[in-house]
Design goal:
12 helices, 2 domains, mainly alpha, 72% helix, 250 residues
């Protein structure tokens, strides 16, 4: 997981490196894809470890390439017309991350894959809701579907200029309810026999779910602050799952 996290971090950093021209970032990401599929010519330590992942676990190299394609799409797309378009993006940058992760965690029931996909949707939608203000301010990106902006009478300029309107609040409530449905669906899809191995994913689910509840309770004031949980709350959640694991083993 350390290797996989480092891979995701490096790929994401390349795509977000505003000091490099977009073409250079795209070229670096393509070199990563080529290396994963065909082997790295002069691999660094991380590339060696990433190359070994598919030999140690049943991880398809194409999954790693889909993650790269997902972050690379940020170089080309700053808007998504329909929710289905956004969901395709979420699948590559979050659900596929989940599919790789569960292979490392280990699972028994193939239904766990559907759990990973739906939890990925929920987590990424939460990220998008939380980061609306930051994305607009730093890169001019609006990930929320344009069809939803029109539905609730929200202008792109409202988001880019950080204006709270009644339509914005209603749209964000709609988006949060959509995300909560994916959390609920993921929970229903998680096979009982795999709950113990999926504990890291369940911790992420609770943390991000609580963040989303916090954003909603605070009226979606995402232009004013970046929401998160306190260190104490995170430790409490972690301790709760650790205790549950201990009791399960006794």
């Amino acid at each position: 997981m350390v290797t996989f996290y480092a891979f995701c971090r490096v790929i994401d950093d390349i795509a977000d490196d505003s000091t490099l021209p977009a073409e250079e970032r795209r070229s670096q990401l393509e070199r990563w894809k080529t290396g994963i599929l065909q082997g790295f010519a002069n691999p660094d330590e991380l590339q060696v470890e990433v190359g070994a992942l598919s030999r140690r676990y049943p991880i398809e190299p194409s999954w790693l390439c889909q993650i790269i394609e997902g972050v690379a799409s940020d170089l080309d797309h700053q808007r998504y017309e329909r929710f289905e378009d956004l969901l395709a993006y979420c699948y590559k940058v979050a659900s596929v991350v989940g599919l790789v992760s569960i292979e490392i965690f280990g699972y028994k029931n193939p239904g766990c894959r559907d759990y990973a996909v739906h939890l990925g949707y929920a987590l990424q939608l939460t990220n998008i809701i939380r980061d609306v203000g930051e994305d607009a301010r730093e890169s001019g990106r609006i990930y929320l579907p344009l069809e939803d902006l029109r539905r609730f009478g929200v202008q792109e300029s409202d988001i880019l200029q950080r204006r709270y309107t009644s339509g914005f609040h209603e749209m964000m409530l709609f988006q949060s309810q959509r995300a909560f449905r994916y959390y609920d669906k993921a929970n229903l899809l998680l096979p009982d026999e795999d709950r113990q191995n999926m504990m890291p994913a369940e911790i992420m689910s609770q943390v991000y779910g609580e963040i989303l509840h916090k954003i909603q309770r605070n009226g979606f004031r995402v232009f004013d602050r970046r929401f998160g949980l306190s260190k104490l709350r995170k430790i409490t959640i972690l301790a709760g799952y650790a205790l549950r694991g201990i009791l399960k083993a006794v």
